[in-house]
Design brief:
The chain is of the alpha/beta class. About 35% of the residues lie in helices and about 15% in strands. It is found in: Cell membrane. One of its GO terms (cellular component) is voltage-gated potassium channel complex.
């Protein structure tokens, strides 16, 4: 190599070394970083990692002990499209946590301690297409308008949670929904759940592991698959009356009987008054005729 080329080679090596050093400096401790990706899987992290590059598009925090996602730190990652937080300790209140990552397309919160999903939990994720909240055994409630703003949602997994009920409007009004995981939940198959089961049989949505989408209560329907139980619920709910219906009918019958009795009593009083008044008028007329 010519002497004149040697400084150029040294300069190139220096710049490459500076770039690699800069990349290492910008990567969170113990995590691995590639182009636009930060991977912190299985590091037993207790907290959200610091010093994440601001241009990160894919962040993987799986298999740690993180119990809290700071909304402010997340909001710095405004270009984030993929977030994997499975197998952590996230729970309690996640409302407004994702307010600053509106470009997020993929979110995995499975195997955590989520307890509920409200409208404010994912309402700012207008681009969300895949949401996995399965394997959260303490998840017992999803508000009926929880996904009202997630109109691009295609994949929703709520399998193996503590859910017993899911309002039909929660999923029916999602125009792009194609995949819903519902297996191994404690579904309460009563008349309120009939609309949801009917939607399952009539929609174009795919339900994986369908053999494990079964009723847990009431006892008479336990372990029956959702589509198979639809006919039974139609018979129980639409052709038979429950105790409340009988009570309601008894009250209506009593009210009608009481109203009829009162009407007859008032009519009888009016008839008696009319007869008394008429007889008095006739007696007065007879007296006048006698005097004349």
């Amino acid at each position: 190599m010519s002497p004149s080329g040697r400084p150029r080679s040294l300069s190139l090596m220096f710049l490459l070394g500076m770039g690699m050093a800069s990349e290492r400096i910008n990567c969170p401790s113990r995590c691995s970083c590639q182009y636009l990706e930060v991977n912190c899987t299985g590091l037993q992290l207790q907290e959200f990692p610091a010093a994440i590059p601001l241009d990160t598009r894919q962040l993987i925090l799986a298999a740690n002990n993180i119990s809290y996602l700071p909304a402010v730190e997340l909001s710095f990652l405004s270009d984030l499209v993929y977030l994997d937080c499975r197998k952590n300790l996230l729970g309690d209140d996640l409302d407004f946590t994702f307010i600053g990552v509106a470009k997020l397309v993929y979110l995995d919160l499975s195997f955590n301690n989520l307890t509920q999903v409200t409208f404010s939990t994912f309402s700012h994720l207008l681009s969300l297409m895949v949401l996995k909240i399965s394997d959260n055994p303490n998840l017992v409630a999803i508000e009926k308008d929880a996904f009202a703003n997630n109109t691009w949602l295609r994949h929703l997994d709520v399998s193996r949670t503590g859910l017993t009920f899911l309002d039909i409007s929660t999923v029916r009004d999602l125009p792009n929904l194609r995949f819903v995981g519902l297996s191994d939940n404690l579904w309460h198959c009563n008349c309120s759940f009939l609309d949801f089961i009917t939607w399952m049989t009539e929609s174009n949505v795919h339900f994986p592991d369908a053999d494990n989408i079964t009723c847990y209560t009431p006892e008479g329907l336990r372990a029956l698959k959702m589509p198979a139980v639809e006919a039974q619920l139609h018979f129980n709910c639409l052709t038979q009356l429950d105790k409340q219906d009988y009570i309601f009918l008894c009250l209506i019958g009593f009210c009608i009987f009481f109203a009829g009795t009162m009407a007859a009593w008032l009519a009888g009083i009016c008839a008696v008054i009319y007869e008394v008044h008429t007889s008095k008028g006739e007696e007065e007329e007879e007296e006048e005729d006698t005097v004349t």
